[in-house]
Predict the 3D structure of the following.
Amino acid sequence: MLCVRCGSKAVYYSPHSGHRFCAKCFIRSIERRVRSTINRYKLLEPNDRILVAISGGKDSQVLLTILSKIERRFPQVTMTALAVDEGVPGYRDFGLKRCRELCEELGVELVVTSFKELFGYTLPEIVSLAEKRGVGLKACTYCGILRRRAINIKAKELGATKVVTGHNLDDEAQTALMNLLRGDALRLLRLGPKPIEEYPGFIPRVKPLRYIPERDITFYAYLKGFPFYEVECPYVRASLRDELRFILNDIEGRHPGTKYAIVRAVDKLSALGVKVKVKVKSCKYCGEPTTRDVCRACELLESIGVVAH
Amino acid sequence: MLCVRCGSKAVYYSPHSGHRFCAKCFIRSIERRVRSTINRYKLLEPNDRILVAISGGKDSQVLLTILSKIERRFPQVTMTALAVDEGVPGYRDFGLKRCRELCEELGVELVVTSFKELFGYTLPEIVSLAEKRGVGLKACTYCGILRRRAINIKAKELGATKVVTGHNLDDEAQTALMNLLRGDALRLLRLGPKPIEEYPGFIPRVKPLRYIPERDITFYAYLKGFPFYEVECPYVRASLRDELRFILNDIEGRHPGTKYAIVRAVDKLSALGVKVKVKVKSCKYCGEPTTRDVCRACELLESIGVVAH
């Protein structure tokens, strides 16, 4: 069982492509795929001021490592990392520590912000306020919406032109499937590889790991010796996404290439170039871009009696 | 637990809409939904010569019953039923018998054709030729492609302007999901509710049961006292569609409305009006419309050494 590139002993096998790689060639193949994704879809350009959203988890460690390697060749590009502390004790500490270590190793400036700083409350405080008021939303709903909002606020503050996130092939396939199962055709169309059309006040996001399966990211992280979380988020709960993750892994096992096929279908839909007309306004509370009068973040905070920041 | 329409005792409950119906109002609600699907998407028009593809199974019994009720009001419409005998002994006999009974009851002319008549061989003969040649395709592949072809040949022969099939909401949701999982964005776009654009030589197909869940069709058939198959097709085997049927039923149980949401997403995609450019040629053997030089039906028949008809 030899590496398809250099003939040394293979340590990796892809059931989808049938390729085997040694550790060195595997790492190179991942880096090459990330680079080609960036080039092909013009995710990043020479004058970009890049903000990389990181959590300290394996996806963001792999993302930041590969990006800083790529960007070393483009000295005019500026790259900053952003970690958002949602304030879950025990859980987030390890991630933040790892963010600091990694940024120091790679020589990347790290900005840390928090829900407390931006919204006045930590996630546990928000969850407990919601429980008191009988608002039946999950912690993950607050966390997702406020994290997204936090990233956009800081991106503007720091003058970033692109936000880069560590979403991988599995995330994208799950999201596509979720959009279909929820009947959300417009989100399916907007899930394409290119940076989302710029709205005033919204910094475009790009996902260079979009074609890398989670399995490959985990193996890359393992080969690089990146430490893993040992603590699971205490708020983790069964969601449609979790169900779909399980289902997709199951189908992928029997039909290798399914996740990739899903993401390629999304690409083809997005390549149709259908202009999805979205009317963007400014939230009447916080001024952030939204399709409604009050943005989802302010609405959530309002529903639990927290005044919009 | 009372009927939402007339207040008598309910026998039916929809977890998706929350509605309860008595038997009479349930039957009416299904017929109304079929009628409104036909009207909304102009599936059938007053001058159509309709060919209804039936198998004798519950979907086609329900379809033909409702259609003949609707079309009774439009005397200028002509309606013929078509049954395709693939020649599986034991299995098909019951279906054909039921087709004859039902057509007689409803006063609909029935045309019966067969694989033997059109292609020279029954399905079991084709499967055994394929096995001898080591062609690794499933019986369902031959059956699906040849059945589709048989229907189009007979539709043209009979001068039909529309072919009507009994595909239900579950079938459509499974197909949508299957197209996504196979990366087939174009098929996903062509799965919309309207009659597929006419190609020369291809009679457009419409699916008036597209928004009726299989569960409701089964209940309608039960209330009407339609007999069910007791024999399963001997060729039934695990396929991706079967996996998806199981998965979708499972998700629907936990998230009622998912199947409907999927089909609505397909509708929205198809409403974008993207022209899917398909170059249609005539098969060099049989002259039927195809996107290739040799159509899939002739290719299959050729691969097992059967000369194209």
